[in-house]
RNA sequence: UCCUCGAUAGCUCAACGGCAGAGCGGGCGGCUGUUAACCGCUAGGUUCCCGGUUCGAAUCCAGGUCGAGGAGCCA
């Protein structure tokens, strides 16, 4: 069957003027009178619905008109421009086939539903305006990220999802095992005997592909990962999920400033691309969720990002420390309230905070010449908070080994990682971008559960 | 794990110690072009669970379950 997608009607309406076309889709609304009726039809190809008009001259008029919201139709008819009406064009149907009926029980009504209610029906909520717009943006964003890195000569690196290292201790991990959960084989000391497990040792789902990405970066120069990541944390916030997607570029012969430049360029490129490709969706989010969204995104595309050192940030915060619940002093970790104040009140735009005290950061971050701070950077954005965390990596094998010991880690576990420094080591840098947090920032969706089609959070894994 | 808030019709909510309601959605009817159409009629309830206080509990109290927001962890 040759069918026309509704997206193309919106892109090139004049090309279809007075043409006979076939459109397929699902009813978002059906309104009938005695002799004329209307269907708002969506096929998922774009945000706006197509209006279908049909009259009692259709032999199955009553049948079609009495269908419920959600029903699937195949419509043949004439495309007509309607410049004087609320909708730009419509299809005058000559034949409507009821492809799949819906029912009065259909949970989605022609009204506002709370996002919280919609989370309880993940198999249907994707059909709503908000969720479909979000997931269309999500798809376009994923493509934009690949496009950006591809056009900049990066190699797309697949790092393992099942891992044997706990990387940087970046959070609680999900155990991966085929051992009998009730009666696992035991060692003489009574512990589970992982030598009998599938891989002959304990394994988990990855919390970060960074260390493996470094392997790839020291081969290909510029690489990025883009894949699922898992954290078994008992997090109950609107911006944490147990399963999320992360983008982790890693670049060789690069310093912290190169890392920040890359992050900034990538964010700008992606925002611009989504603005171009998803104008209907962005207008929708702007109208329904945040009247300043488009203005804010455009200003991010055009302006530079702010940058402060951790030490400068502390100086700024100390002047207004009475505002805060948590104390501000050099050496203290920045709390969410501090980060939000900096990015939302002081700088009012995306903000890099760099050079944190080494005690606050991971062992692999490069020690600065002051001996107290490391070449780390966090990118904070208003409303969402930390969206990127990155650093220049410690390329000096002796310093790295020292830091591994300081952090209480086992040097033998990191011999391969030290080898990267012993054999042609170079200074290099990278970062992790939370894909969902980027989607939240672009759509103004406030909850990470609403930017993942089938979200996993503690005690919640529907479908 | 800690703190706060919440749970009433299919959905969104009201009633806050005295007959459990509205809007939307559903059903039926009406309407010659609607735009989350409109108009009329109508059905629809274990007020999350379990105890307690009271003449009387959706409402107050204790415990629990589930959810949401925040903190921490971080992306």
Low-confidence stretches: none
What is the N-to-C succession of helices and strands? HEEEHEEHHHEEEEHEEHHHEHHEEEHHEH
**Physical arrangement of strands within the biggest beta sheet:** 6-10-11-16-15-14-13-12
Number of helices: 14
Secondary-structure class:
alpha+beta
Biggest beta sheet attributes: 8 strands, mixed
Helix content: 25-40%
Protein name: Asparagine--tRNA ligase
GO biological process, one term: asparaginyl-tRNA aminoacylation
InterPro entries: Aa-tRNA-synt_II, aa-tRNA-synth_II, aa-tRNA-synth_II/BPL/LPL, Asn-tRNA-ligase, Asp/Asn-tRNA-synth_IIb, NA-bd_OB-fold, NA-bd_OB_tRNA
Organism: Flexilinea flocculi
General description of the model:
Homodimer. Pfam families: tRNA-synt_2 (PF00152), tRNA_anti-codon (PF01336). A hairpin with a 7-residue loop joins strand 4 and strand 5 (about 90-100). The protein is about 30% helix and about 25% strand. The two termini are about 30 Å apart. It is built from 14 helices and 16 strands. The protein has two domains: about 5-100, OB fold (Dihydrolipoamide Acetyltransferase, E2P), CATH 2.40.50.140; about 130-170 and about 205-450, 2-Layer Sandwich (BirA Bifunctional Protein, domain 2).
